[in-house]
């Protein structure tokens, strides 16, 4: 590995937006760690990136499992000694799962989307503190915006997903907190909405592709010293909280 080559970890990178973000970062010359609960699924994403001349390594990662996260942090420390970019992409949406009670839905969603983001971030901060222009990008959603959800003219006003929205509002709160607490270490932290995208989570309904969604995420992860921190953004700019 060439000196100072940037190293990124993308959680939930075995499909959809996460896989597309990994591809964009690899195309930009970043060594990408493909985080996936199923290692084989991560390897299936990494293989074509390597075949195309990129650097990608599949790593086992379950953000709900302390041991999995700790093991990965140890491996990164031992193998590379630092981390430069963390993309907290792993997430679920269970609002339409009628097999679960509302309490069960929100408990599971918060476990992955919020506690999982917190767990992984806490484990990676010491490595990011050693990184080159360290960045944390949290994947959020416009559904987490209190202002937009109260606007009857908002284009997604018909999407009633209170459990998912609650989890993303909490991710936004984590983003602000980490941006403040990590500023002294030079770590920039932002939340970004990738837009309504054709993935398994949306039953592949929208026209927007994961590749299109990944562009703004990768750009934020690679932002220079003048880039934002503590922001909630999409590809057009700042979003209201």
3D architecture notes:
- With 241 residues, this protein is α/β, with parallel strands linked by helices.
- It has one domain (7-238): NAD(P)-binding Rossmann-like Domain (Rossmann fold, 3-Layer(aba) Sandwich).
- Helix content is 42%, strand content 15%.
- It has helices at residues 16-27, 39-51, 66-79, 102-128, 146-149, 162-181, 210-221, and strands at 7-10, 31-36, 55-60, 85-88, 135-139, 188-192, 232-234, 237-238.
- An eight-stranded mixed sheet has the order 3-2-1-4-5-6-7-8, with helices on both faces.
- Helix 1 packs across helix 7.
- The longest helix has 27 residues, at 102-128.
- The radius of gyration is 17 Å and the shape is globular.
- The mean pLDDT is 93.
Task: Please render the helix and strand layout as text.
Blueprint: E1 7-10, H1 16-27, E2 31-36, H2 39-51, E3 55-60, H3 66-79, E4 85-88, H4 102-128, E5 135-139, H5 146-149, H6 162-181, E6 188-192, H7 210-221, E7 232-234, E8 237-238
Parallel strand pairs: 1-2, 1-4, 2-3, 4-5, 5-6, 6-7
Antiparallel strand pairs: 7-8
Key traits:
8 strands, alpha/beta, NAD(P)-bd_dom_sf, Sc_DH/Rdtase_CS, Rossmann fold, 241 residues, globular
Question: Structural class given helices, strands, pairing?
Answer: alpha/beta
Query: How much β-strand is present in the residues?
Result: 5-15%
Topology as H/E string?
Answer: EHEHEHEHEHHEHEE
Work out the number of β strands: 8
CATH architecture: 3-Layer(aba) Sandwich
CATH superfamily: NAD(P)-binding Rossmann-like Domain
Radius of gyration, whole Å: 17 Å
Task: Give start-end ranges of low-pLDDT stretches.
Answer: none
> How far apart lie the N and C ends?
40 Å
> What does the largest sheet look like?
8 strands, mixed
Question: How many DSSP H or I helices?
Answer: 7
Question: How many separate domains?
Answer: 1
Anisotropy-based shape: globular
Fold-level CATH name? Rossmann fold
What's the CATH class, please?
Alpha Beta
Biggest sheet strand order reads 3-2-1-4-5-6-7-8
Q: How much helical structure, as a percent, in the residues?
A: 40-55%
| Average residue-wise pLDDT | 93
GO cellular component, one term: membrane
Keywords: NADP, Oxidoreductase
Protein name: Short-subunit dehydrogenase
Family: Belongs to the short-chain dehydrogenases/reductases (SDR) family.
């Amino acid at each position: 590995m060439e000196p100072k080559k940037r190293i990124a970890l993308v959680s939930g990178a075995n499909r959809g937006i996460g896989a597309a973000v990994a591809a964009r970062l690899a195309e930009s010359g970043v060594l990408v760690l493909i985080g996936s609960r199923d290692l084989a699924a991560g390897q299936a994403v990494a293989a074509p990136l390597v075949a195309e001349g990129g650097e990608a390594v599949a790593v086992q990662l379950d953000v709900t499992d302390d041991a999995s996260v700790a093991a990965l942090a140890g491996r990164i420390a031992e193998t590379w000694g630092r981390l430069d970019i963390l993309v907290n992409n792993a997430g679920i949406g269970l609002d339409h799962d009628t097999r679960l009670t509302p309490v069960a839905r929100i408990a599971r969603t918060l476990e992955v989307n919020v506690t999982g983001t917190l767990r992984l971030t806490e484990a990676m901060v010491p490595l990011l503190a050693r990184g080159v222009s360290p960045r944390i990008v949290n994947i959020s959603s416009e559904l987490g915006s209190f202002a937009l959800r109260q606007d009857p003219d908002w284009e997604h006003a018909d999407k009633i997903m209170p459990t998912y929205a609650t989890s993303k509002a909490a991710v936004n709160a984590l983003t602000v907190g980490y941006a403040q607490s990590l500023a002294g270490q030079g770590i920039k932290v932002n939340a970004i909405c990738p837009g309504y995208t054709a993935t398994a989570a949306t039953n592949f309904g929208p026209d927007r592709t994961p590749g299109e969604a990944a562009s703004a995420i990768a750009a934020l992860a690679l932002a220079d010293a003048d880039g934002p921190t503590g922001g909630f953004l999409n590809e057009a700019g700042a979003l209201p909280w």
